[in-house]
């Protein structure tokens, strides 16, 4: 936080996970400018997480645990997204890495340029 005053903003991955966390962030840190939501099917997410498990050695990256984590995520997700209807930008995360990156750039570059 030492350089927070000099920064152009924050890019926070995987947060908020619950509605209360989003409210606390905005009250404590800063208002949200944009929410990037990477949409992918549960099948795609499971496949990617299992791929991560193969290389990371994380004990909690098994199919049963992943399914439970996805259920928890989906149970909370709609409330979080509903909190930011005007700030929400959905990105098709089933696309290629280059296509996804291009979509992210289209959203973030104008924001960073104005800071």
Automatic annotation (TrEMBL):
<comment type="similarity">
    <text>Belongs to the adenylate kinase family.</text>
</comment>
<dbReference type="GO" id="GO:0019205">
    <property type="term" value="F:nucleobase-containing compound kinase activity"/>
</dbReference>
<dbReference type="InterPro" id="IPR000850">
    <property type="entry name" value="Adenylat/UMP-CMP_kin"/>
</dbReference>
<dbReference type="InterPro" id="IPR033690">
    <property type="entry name" value="Adenylat_kinase_CS"/>
</dbReference>
<dbReference type="GO" id="GO:0006139">
    <property type="term" value="P:nucleobase-containing compound metabolic process"/>
</dbReference>
<keyword id="KW-0547">Nucleotide-binding</keyword>
<dbReference type="GO" id="GO:0005524">
    <property type="term" value="F:ATP binding"/>
</dbReference>
<dbReference type="Pfam" id="PF00406">
    <property type="entry name" value="ADK"/>
</dbReference>
<protein>
    <submittedName>
        <fullName>Adenylate kinase isoenzyme 1</fullName>
    </submittedName>
</protein>
<dbReference type="InterPro" id="IPR027417">
    <property type="entry name" value="P-loop_NTPase"/>
</dbReference>
<keyword id="KW-0808">Transferase</keyword>
<keyword id="KW-0418">Kinase</keyword>
């Amino acid at each position: 936080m030492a350089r927070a005053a000099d920064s152009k903003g924050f890019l926070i991955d995987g947060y908020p996970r619950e509605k209360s966390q989003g409210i606390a962030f905005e009250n404590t840190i800063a208002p949200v400018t944009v929410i990037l939501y990477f949409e992918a099917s549960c099948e795609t997410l499971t496949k990617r997480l299992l791929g991560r498990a193969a290389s990371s050695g994380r004990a909690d990256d098994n199919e049963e645990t992943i399914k439970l984590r996805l259920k928890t995520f989906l149970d909370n997700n709609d409330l979080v997204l509903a909190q930011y209807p005007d700030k929400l930008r959905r990105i098709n995360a089933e696309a290629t890495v280059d296509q996804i990156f291009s979509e992210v750039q289209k959203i973030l570059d104008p924001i960073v340029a104005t800071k």
